[in-house]
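Exercise 3.2. Students should predict the tertiary structure of the chain below and write it as structure tokens, then compare their answer with the key that follows.

Predict this chain's 3D structure.
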Amino acid sequence: MLKISSEVRTNPAAFFEAAIGNYIASSPNNVMPSFPGEHIWDEPVVAFASGDDPLFQDYKKIIGDFHFTPREALETHIERSAYPYHPEKVSVITWALPSTRATRLSMREETQFTSLRWNYTRWYGQEVNARLSRHLVSLIESMGGYAVSPEQERWFEVKRDIPNAPASVWSLRHIAYAAGLGTFSLNDGFITPVGIAIRLGSVVCDLDIPPTPRLSNSHQSNCLFYRTGDCGKCIKRCPAGAITEQGHDRAKCSNYQSRVMPAAFKIVGRDNSQYVGNYLGCGLCQTGVPCEGRIPASKDRVD
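Answer key:
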């Protein structure tokens, strides 16, 4: 039986917004290594979706029939539990963790490399994100509910045999779009109220949480290039030539991060011995652009 407090029953959205915000504000893991007193992530933004929103079925055509709906994700998890059942309600909790201003400023100064702050945000920051997901799952389970973080499940995978580009069985950008958290961009990112320099996360649960309205006019309306035909500053920011007016070339992008950039570090004699992770990461097209820290209202302004 669900042990839901009156606070959760009255306003579940506010409860989980506070839970996520408090976790990021107080987590001892949300601390930037080598930069005392700095956080990795600023205050998050949170949104919600109904797990039975028809858009999730549409994703099976847009992305591929392999893409899980929230109900499929949760029921796959429940089926492996000791007490399987068919949940009446399924809700998605999704959030965006924004990079700090210090991290964004460090990347604005770069033209071909990843800053150390950005590299730490990519790898240490993702661990904070994963811990947040597990925290929410545990919180919901403590209420007697079921919850799952799909991107951390064993069945999660990236399909690399897709003709145009690899696609995962649980696309965090598409989940966030369904929840009204933002829209897609020319450089393949996701523009939210706190900008594009973010990390997304999600949890699916069997609680009844009112969905956040989708207020955007289209799935690309937060991007100035798609909205007005202007901007395209991310094209100029990409040293790999991976972004054009036709979109983002993931193969060029990946090759630059994993091969070209490490070689360039050596050529110019720049030290990258403190960097961590399987690859250096790159956020050049997400910084020094109008959508860096907000939904842009003007094509020329960068906060």
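Discussion points: The beta strands are 45-50, 91-98, 147-148, 158-159, 167-168, 183-184, 190-191, 198-205, 243-244, 247-248. The mean pLDDT is 93.
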